[in-house]
Amino acid sequence: xxxxxxxxxxxxxxxxMGGSESSPSAAPAPAAEKPxxxxxxxxxxxxxxxxxxxxxxxxxxxxxxVIANVDPLLHEQMKIDKKYRSIGIVGGRTGAGPQxxxxxxxxxxxxxxxxxxxxxxxxxxxxxxxxxxVFGAEDVSDARRAVEVTLSELDRTFGDVYGxxxxxxxxxxxxxxxxxxxxxxxxxxGQAFGITVGCPxxxxxxxxxxxxxxxxxxxxxxxxxxxxxxxxxxxxxFMFSGDSGAVRQAIRAARDVGKQVLGTLDPAPVASATKPYx
Length: 278
Known about the structure:
The protein is α+β, with helices and mostly antiparallel strands. Helix 3 crosses helix 4, helix 3 packs antiparallel against helix 5 and helix 6 packs antiparallel against helix 7.
């Protein structure tokens, strides 16, 4: 009787509190929580492209494309040899040297020819270039292969590209220059060839002097913002050939000096874009 009375009193208390009786093992109801702040949308992978003309992408926001049969009207405007029905196209927002040196390897590996090289003012707001390279080929498979080789080489050729918010440095080397480098820079075909690039252009001028003093090299060209060689970008570019060891030595000396000077302009580390190869 006493227990019944106690239970009735407990039921009345719970009813007045607006709750319900639960077993001792039941977990207490969670406290009300404030709505969570909205989360930033997760980064998504680049969209896939199923076009037959699409070959791929690579460093420097570089895209590779191929056109199996160029329309005759466009073909005429592009002033391409009529025998080249197919073209491969490589275009990048950042980098000119990396794409051109990569294209030089593509020419060596395929039955194709570089018919156009242009250096647009770009670097996505920086002080340097982007690039546009067009390969001509009689067979579409050669045009596609040239683009594939170029894209695959970019991880290597970006190895001696160094950038900070204050500027950038670039160094490229090949033991045997071919037709792409000859077309772009006047490199002697079959000889070792290298370039040094400095932005701001003042650093490039210093690196050019360092390179010539460090080893016996043969100057091929020198480009500054106002002499028509850099699309008015804030760079000084020195191009040279010579003995393979001398060209490497000149580049390494210029690289050491350039990294030291660029490092004084911004606290960000002067680090390779991928992995140095020279």
